[in-house]
Amino acid sequence: MTRTAKIVILALVVLALGAGTYYWMGRQNAQTNGTQEGTVLGTDESPASTSTLPTGGSTSDASLDTDLSSIDAQLSAFSSDSAAVDTSLNDQSVEQSSI
Question: Mean pLDDT across the stretch 26-47?
Fold first, then answer.
């Protein structure tokens, strides 16, 4: 194969990868744009939130207690997940018996 043919094939592969990436990114943006919720300008409505994350909207004692409880729950869940991962990483191999 000549050098010119190799360069042409390489250029076509790079062009195909670029076109595929552009197409894929366009589809990803179209999917997220179609499913986004947001506020309409000029209204005071906001999308409903079902998150357990801290709100940060108020600095009252009750709100801070709620936020701290939520953070504690998330950290506890992370701690148990981390322990499970550590356990699986420290798993010892078992000798196989022959039949």
Answer: 60
Left (φ > 0), alpha (ψ -120 to 50) or beta: where does 40 sit? beta
Measured in whole angstroms, the distance separating CA 46 from the mean position of its chain's CA atoms is 23
The three-state DSSP-derived secondary structure of 1-52 is CCHHHHHHHHHHHHHHHHHHHHHHHHHHHHHHHHHCCCCCCCCCCCCCCCCC
pTM above 0.90, yes or no: no
Query: b vs e for 66-99, b when ≥16 Cβ sit within 10 Å of the residue's Cβ?
Result: ebeeeeeeeeeeeeeeeeeeeeeeeeeeeeeeee
Sequence-separated (6 or more) residues with CB below 8 Å from residue 47: 37, 38, 39
pLDDT at 85 over 90: no
